Amino acid sequence: MRQEAVASAMASVEQLETALHEDLHLEILTPVAEVLMAAGSPEEQRLIQSYLQLFLAMTAQRTLDEEIRVRWFRGPVGRRLVELAGSLDAMAMQPPAADGGFQMDQSDVQLLAMLTEGLTNGEIATRLGQDEVTVARRLGEMFARIGAPTRSEATAFAFREQVV
Fold first, then answer.
1. How far is CA 159 from CA 72, 110, 135, in A?
2. 77-108: per-residue pLDDT in tens?
3. DSSP classification of residue 162
4. CATH code for the domain defined by 106-160
5. Residue 159: CB partners within 8 Å, gap ≥ 6?
6. Residue 68: alpha-carbon gap to chain centroid
7. What are the structural domain ranges in the chain?
8. Distance (Å, rounded) from C-alpha 96 to C-alpha 41?
9. Residue 119 near residue 128 (C-beta atoms within 8 A)
10. How many CB atoms neighbour CB 49 within 10 A?
11. pLDDT of 57 above 90
12. Residues 32, 35: Cα–Cα separation, whole Å
């Protein structure tokens, strides 16, 4: 029975990723995360925690009104997602070092170059031979590393830091 619940939860995660919606449907994601954290393998648990951490980091970064952000994270849904996600320390969004010590790998530079061209996730995916879900995940991770909450700020970062 546990294996069936885990299989259904993983199928739900795949469907959420495939849907490519900005909204994550928390009414689905929360119980899925609870199942995976209770009965999933360590790998499945790490997967859902990474997914939740990325979502929470992006939510924190994109919610500009501090009062609303605090209320949401202290509310029942935000609090539960934080409990399931575990520590967000690894996802801390820090600006690049002021001494120019920030280093980007070639895949980040490639993504930033495509952003500066104004390409959509679908267009980037086509160029890279990847699916849109992978591109969206990679962009979100890169945004977190460079401290950019939006595509336009990531583009500004690319020009300001002379990455492209």
1. 34, 13, 21
2. 988 998 998 865 544 444 444 444 456 788 88
3. T
4. 1.10.10.10
5. 116
6. 20
7. 2-91, 106-160
8. 35
9. no
10. 18
11. no
12. 5
3-state secondary structure 50-112: HHHHHHHHHHHHHCCCHHHHHHHHHCHHHHHHHHHHCCCHHHCCCCCCCCCCCCCCHHHHHHH
pLDDT band at 128 (very low <50, low <70, confident <90, very high): very high
What is the mean pLDDT of the segment spanning 110-117? Answer: 89
Answer yes or no: is pLDDT of 43 > 60. yes
Burial class (CB in 10 A: 0-12, 13-18, 19+), 47: middle
Would you say 58 and 140 are in contact if contact means Cβ atoms under 8 Å apart?
yes
Amino acid at 82: V
152 token code pair = 């336009």
Enter the tokens of residue 68: 């609303």
* Sign of the dihedral defined by the CA atoms of residues 21, 22, 24, 27, in that order: negative
Provide the whole-model pTM: 0.54
The mean pLDDT value of the chain amounts to 82
